């Protein structure tokens, strides 16, 4: 195994002042969670503004990198050689050994960027740059120095220990999950809502989810698809409790009592209401949807306003201004696309009218909802009492 240690650099959480340790601890927790299914043991520690991971024996490099690339808060993953702060001759040897092992083909240009953080160390940064450059040129005559656009920027940091690295793998950015409360994602089987969940989790928010299931109009397979999507999102967000609401009776009742062109809007209003009740009960402070302006009749600005009216919680709609293709691009990147396009319909597609209203008038909607007065409260209560919770991770 080439690398025994990793340097984890974070970006935005570095700016959090006095609370920085909370962000660092959350990041370490998420790193541990991400590494759990991965082969290998690591000791994780923090040292002024950075996090180190030390491998304890064998591990699977590709798996480790793939797992770290899903941990929000990580800006860069740097596999490195790390040695004790010994005499400079030893550091020279280690640097030559690093270059030899990491770069099979030595035909590259390079620059050494040494940093003496420990000012007690007897060799200055400039001298290290010069001498280490010379060692590389002498040991590998195919290499060349290029201080402006080097192929390889070799970092040598003299801190508590000596870090040698040149490979910087980008992490996902964002903030560690757990630093920004919890929100409830309305998760359907489509492309948009898993992306919406991913985007909010990226800002450090823990996620729970709710899915409105309408058996027998929607199949067990459609529900399984939502479970699969929740698990895919949880690779980034950490554990998700998926609340499955049996929505059939509510949907049928609305279908019987209300004008069909208003079905989708009224149904969506009940979805939001029920999602908000579950969110309140389970500690979520906001709702998340995959709505995007104008995508379908129920997502015109008028429809969004009508849907939003039933909520008192903030509703996060992170893909609101995205074109479909932009959402698809993210879903491909995060690995949910293939599952989202499986052809199992979610509950909305069954009860859609041929000509749904695109500019609902809120007064008209209120009037139609009066037709539900007799049974709707009881139906909502039953739906809330029979929620099935599936742990997804
Ligand atoms: P998606 O691709 O996320 O399914 P969509 O383009 O199909 O979105 P709609 O069906 O209008 O759009 O749904 C808009 C949003 O409402 C979804 O992104 C999701 O957040 C929520 N939603 C829709 N149907 C359900 C459902 N059956 N269960 C939970 N949430 C739902
Ligand atoms: Mg949908």
Please tally the helical runs, counting DSSP H or I stretches of 4 or more residues. Answer: 13
Which overall shape is indicated by the principal axes computed on the Cα atoms?
elongated
SSE order, one letter for each helix or strand: EHEEHEHEHEEEEEHEHEHHEHEHHHHE
How many strand segments? 15
Helix vs. strand class = alpha/beta
| Backbone CA Rg | 27 Å
What separation lies between the terminal Cα atoms? 29 Å
Molecules bound to protein: adenosine-5'-triphosphate, magnesium ion
Average pLDDT, rounded to a whole number, is 94
- Low-pLDDT runs: none
* Largest sheet entry: 9 strands, mixed
The proportion of strand residues reads 15-25%
Q: State the share of residues found in helices, binned by percent.
A: 25-40%
The quaternary structure here is: single chain
Written account of the structure:
With 393 residues, this protein is an alpha/beta fold. It is built from 13 helices and 15 strands. The protein is elongated. It starts with a strand and ends with a strand. 40% of the residues are buried. The model has no long low-confidence stretch (mean pLDDT 94).
Summarize the SSE layout with pairings.
Layout: E1 5-10, H1 20-35, E2 42-47, E3 50-55, H2 61-68, E4 74-83, H3 88-102, E5 109-116, H4 125-139, E6 144-145, E7 152-158, E8 162-165, E9 169-170, E10 182-186, H5 192-201, E11 206-213, H6 220-237, E12 240-246, H7 248-257, H8 263-282, E13 287-288, H9 301-308, E14 315-316, H10 324-334, H11 337-340, H12 362-369, H13 376-385, E15 388-392
Parallel strand pairs: 5-6, 5-7, 10-11, 10-13, 11-12, 13-14
Antiparallel strand pairs: 1-3, 1-4, 2-3, 4-8, 4-9, 7-8, 12-15
The structure holds adenosine-5'-triphosphate and magnesium ion.
